[in-house]
Amino acid sequence: MNQQQQQQQQEEEDSHNMEAAATFNSHHSQLLEWQDTLEFLCFTLYYIIKEDRRWPCYQAAELCDCIKELIKACSDKGGKLYPLIQGEDGCRLKQKLRQIRKIRHAVAHRVPQTENDMCRKQEATNWTIAELEKLIGAAAARYDIRSMEMYPPATCGAMTNSFQERNSQTVTVQLNGPPVLSARREALERFTAEAAVSRAPDRRRSQLELYEIAYEKRLGKRKQHFQDMLATRDRQLERIKQAKKYEELALRQLNDVPSQGYNRLPLVLITANLAFAASLMFYF
C-alpha cells in the first residue's frame, strides 16, 4: 500500500510539472510576442523623432534602450515628441514604458509568471501599443515621415557593424496610412509573396541543373563505352595481324617441306603455327 501511494504521488508530481512547463511555455511565447511588437513600435517612434539614430533597424535595438530614449524624449521640451504628449498623458506614458521593461526582464531571465502577472503585463502592453500607434501616426504626419525601411525576420542575423551590408533585403513600412502594425503586416505579406515568386525560377533552374548533370553522366558513359569499343577493335586488329603473320610463316614452312624431304620437325612447327593462328582468330 505504501508503494502504491508513493507511485501515485510521483504521478501527481509528474502531472503537475508537465502542467507547469506547458503554462511557462505559453506565457513565455506570449511575452516574446509582446516584446517584439513593443520593440517595433518604440523603435518606429524613435525613428521618427530622432535624426541621429543609434540603430539601423528595430531588430538591432533592445527594448530597454528604446524605452530609455523615449522617456528622455518625453521630458525634452525642445524635442519632437514633447509637443505631441504633455501633462498627464506624458507622465502616464513614461509610467507604462517603465512597466513594460519588466517584459524584457522576464524574457531575458525566463522568469515564471503567474496569471496575475500576465494580466498586469497585458494591460500595460495593450495601453502602450494603442498609445504608441497614435503617437506614431501623429508624429509621422507632423514631421512628414511617410515610410520606414525594415529588415524582414528571415534576413536578420547577428548585429554587427556590417549589418546593413550583409542584410540588403528590406521592406518598406508605410507610416502615413493605416495603423503601423497593420502596415508592417501588409509589408511582410508582400515580401513573402514576392520571395515565393522569386524562388520559383530558382526551383526551375535547379531542375535544369539536375537534368544537365544527368545528361552529362549519360554522355560520359556513352563516351567511355565508345572508347572501350575503339580499344577492343585495336586489340582485335593487332591479334589479326599476329594471326596472319603466323599463317604466312606456316605457309612458307609448308612450301619448304618438298625441298627438305620428309622431316617430322618442320611438320610439327607448321602445325603449331597454324594452331596458334587459329587460336588467335577463334579468340575474336
From TrEMBL:
Keyword Transmembrane helix applies: yes
UniProt key word Transmembrane helix: yes
Record's keyword terms, sorted: Membrane, Transmembrane, Transmembrane helix
Membrane spanning stretches: 265-283
Protein name in the entry: Uncharacterized protein
Species this chain originates from: Emergomyces africanus
